[in-house]
Specification:
28% helix; 98 residues; single chain; 2 helices; alpha+beta; 38% strand
Length: 98
């Protein structure tokens, strides 16, 4: 997990943008918001890099090796809701969630 912290520090200082490919092969640019730890796993919180974007995307971080990680969709609504609530609590007063 220390490696993820280094990667996140680099992302925060260099660029907070991440480009992901959706299921249809389209590249979508997201702004990195945070990493939330829950139940022994890490979840990345992103928002589409679009001024009209109003929903965050939460993906599970899976480390493939020391330098590479992948982001995986989460099917469990309970986990998604819990991670989102943790994110909201952390940024209460800083981000308007209405």
């Amino acid at each position: 997990m220390a490696d993820n912290e280094n990667i996140l520090e680099e992302m925060e200082t260099e660029s907070a943008l991440i480009t992901l490919t959706d299921d249809e092969g389209n590249e979508v640019e997201f702004e990195f918001l945070d990493v939330i730890e829950y139940d022994g796993d890490e979840y990345i919180v992103l928002i589409e890099n679009d001024e009209d974007a109003d929903e965050v995307v939460i993906l599970k971080i899976n480390a493939l090796d020391e330098e590479t990680e992948e982001y995986v969709s989460i099917d469990d609504e309970e986990i998604l809701q819990t991670v989102f609530e943790m994110f909201k609590k952390k940024y209460e007063g800083d981000i308007n969630f209405e």
